[in-house]
Write a structure and sequence with these properties.
By secondary structure, the protein is an all-alpha fold. The chain contains nine helices and no strands. The longest helix is centred in the middle third of the chain and has 29 residues, at 141-169.
């Protein structure tokens, strides 16, 4: 369990303390933007690998169970994961000023459409939904640490990105933020935007369904746990 704690601290540290602070600027100034992206990508990949291996070790050893998940949470899980996949896949394939190197999109009048009407951070909210429901549906210490790391990073990441983009983009960001929201559907409920399903892109929705179907079918093979109690796809 100690290794899992250390892996979680490392992964959160490189994202929140290094990439999410002024330290990133100093490192970029010393080694350049391209080198920073390579180093950070490698560190992130290493962090995820460390987390995964430590999680497997923790679940195989003494692992305190804080609550026994109700059976309904396991049966509802595929529906929640479908929503998470929808946010992540449709979000990551939608042009978004919050993405790295995409600041210029904020000035385009037709940028705020589709998924951006729902939230300006769709991928991160998809990751947060995925992680939080895995905590609910497991209830053990290892899962809380492992999935909690991703949930915390995803949620805090939305605020961190907003702050960095606001400082760098100024009025362009102010205009974009006024028409969108961090919290899903908040701008729509507040009357600052409206939901238009057709703008999401049917190919994106189909792609999300394909990704979800693949993960659902391969979940037992990839992670050793059936996505639904009693379901064996092969």
């Amino acid at each position: 369990m100690l290794s899992l704690w250390a892996a979680a601290a490392f992964f959160l540290g490189i994202h929140l303390v290094v990439a999410g602070s002024g330290l990133r600027g100093r490192i970029v100034g010393a080694i350049g933007e391209r080198a920073w992206l390579v180093v950070f990508s490698l560190a992130s990949l290493g962090g995820i690998s460390w987390l995964a291996m430590s999680f497997n070790e923790a679940t195989a050893g003494p692992n305190h169970l804080y609550w026994a998940p109700p059976m309904w949470t396991l049966h509802v899980a595929p529906l929640v994961m479908l929503v998470a996949t929808f946010f992540a896949v449709v979000g990551i394939t939608t042009p978004n000023p919050t993405a790295v190197g995409a600041d210029a999109l904020a000035d385009k009048p037709d940028t705020v459409k589709g998924m951006l009407r729902i939230t300006r951070h769709p991928f991160l909210w998809g990751a947060a939904i995925w992680a939080l429901w895995h905590i609910v549906a497991n209830g053990d210490r290892a899962s809380i640490i492992f999935f909690g790391t991703f949930a915390l990073l995803a949620i805090l990441g939305t605020f961190s990105i907003d702050e960095k983009k606001k400082k760098r983009m100024g009025e362009a960001w102010t205009g974009f933020a006024a028409k969108t929201s961090n919290l899903p559907f908040a701008a729509i409920f507040a009357g600052r935007n409206q939901l238009k399903i057709g703008e999401l892109g049917w190919w994106r929705i189909l792609f999300a369904l394909v990704v979800f179907g693949g993960l659902f079918y391969a979940h037992l093979w990839l992670f050793g746990v059936s996505p639904v109690p009693g379901f064996t796809p092969y």
